[in-house]
From TrEMBL:
It is found in: Cell membrane. It is a multi-pass membrane protein. GO terms for cellular component: plasma membrane. GO terms for molecular function: transmembrane transporter activity. The lineage of its organism: Bacteria, Bacillati, Bacillota, Clostridia, Lachnospirales. It comes from the Bacteria. This is Xylose transport system permease protein XylH. It comes from Faecalicatena orotica.
Length: 386
């Protein structure tokens, strides 16, 4: 029984194990610098846009392996609009945020219309969008960089949660939040297991759930321990957490989420069962535009500027994170937690190689190889299943 539990755990949490191994490898190669408190904080802040964009990209991929190539350009134009409003026009920051969100949503609706209701291939629509919105962002910026962003705006994303207990060199609030988060995760896991047992559903072996809670709980505590040794919980982590929880709920507990998986599994069967597939496609791409706007807000806050080159290759990071995190290249499978693991793995590889001084071109080679390996693993797994 114990062997079965271990086997089930290893099969289900392969990417978690890979993430741990890669992190330990870079920690060893960097002489421990990889896990310095400041580097752990940098890992979160530098990859915030990846977490946000990958969450939205998953919804597009679930519909049948479709992707959105325009998200980097949307980040650029939304950032340009926001910076123009806040810096050049001196508008209220909250009004500017609403304008940025509206801009991203309108772009998402525009692309969603052509993809969902006119059935233009997503690759073509978003490729066109990538070119159009990059050009429009340069027109808005007139080729210049707008900086700096207002201090009040930067505080929304770049500041840290106050330590209410005023720990000496250690953020007590951060540690308590970590303990609470780990406890909540364990409670939710076992409540969900008990509910499945009551309804007669199949459940994973008990040992597998215990191992999952132990690994995830330990990871949460280690993260909070390192953050507590720096400045505590960064605001951007709260933004990421809220987005992940919302979309984790949408994909796993709502009708829209079930429809996304159904369309990715078999679109014709989904149509015959009464699912409005056009509407689901539209929601996926409109939502992608909205989350790209949120990523733009985070990006211009981190850089304190909006430039014509902002957002370059962001779409590749988001797509790569989804596939590395277990999303199928054919659609119909993938989870928000998996995407977050994939994005974290990409971030760890980037940070580790940067600390080691690896050339940027070799970093691209490694990231491409990791992405290819993840997709090959997915394809071969499906072949064996058949």
């Amino acid at each position: 029984m114990e062997k079965a539990n271990v086997s089930a755990f290893l099969k289900k949490y392969t990417m978690v194990i890979v993430l741990i191994i890669v992190t330990l490898f870079f920690t060893w190669k960097t002489g421990g610098r990889m896990l310095l408190p400041q580097n752990v904080n940098n890992l979160i802040s530098q990859n915030a846009y990846v977490f946000i964009l990958a969450t939205g990209m998953l919804l597009c991929i679930l519909t049948g392996g479709n992707i959105d190539l325009s998200v980097g350009s949307i980040v650029c134009i939304v950032g340009a609009v926001g910076a123009t409003c806040m810096v050049n026009l001196k508008m209220n920051i909250f009004a500017s945020i609403l304008i940025m969100l509206a801009t991203g949503l309108v772009i998402g609706i525009w692309q969603g219309f052509w993809i969902a209701y006119r059935r233009i291939p997503p690759f073509i629509v978003t490729l066109a969008g990538m070119l159009m919105f990059r050009g429009l962002s340069n027109i808005v910026l007139d080729g210049y960089t707008i900086a700096p962003m207002p201090e009040k705006y930067l505080m929304l994303f770049n500041s840290y949660i106050i330590d209410f207990f005023h720990g000496d060199g250690l953020n007590i609030t951060c540690l308590l939040v970590g303990i609470l988060a780990a406890a909540v995760f364990i409670i939710i896991t076992f409540r969900g297991r008990r509910a499945k047992v009551k309804k007669g559903y199949a459940v994973t072996p008990l040992g597998s759930d215990i191992m999952k809670c132990a690994v995830i709980g330990l990871a949460i505590m280690l993260l909070m321990w390192r953050l507590a040794q720096y400045k505590g919980i960064p605001n951007i982590l709260l933004w990421i957490t809220v987005i992940v929880l919302i979309y984790g709920y949408i994909t796993s507990k709502t009708t829209v989420g079930r429809h996304l998986y159904a369309i990715g599994g078999n679109e014709k069967a989904a149509q015959l069962s009464g699912i409005n597939t056009n509407k689901v496609y539209f929601i996926a791409y409109a939502n992608m535009g909205l989350l790209a706007a949120v990523a733009a807000m985070v990006t211009i806050a981190r850089l304190s500027s909006a430039s014509p080159t902002a957002g370059e290759s962001y779409e590749m990071d988001a797509i790569g994170s989804c596939f590395i995190g277990g999303a199928s290249a054919y659609g119909g499978s993938g989870t928000i937690p998996g995407v977050i693991i994939g994005a974290t793995l990409m971030g760890v590889i980037n940070l580790g190689m940067s600390i080691m001084g690896v050339d940027a071109n070799w970093q691209k080679v490694v990231k491409g190889a990791v992405l290819l390996a993840a997709v090959i693993f997915d394809v071969e797994s499906k072949k064996r299943a058949k």
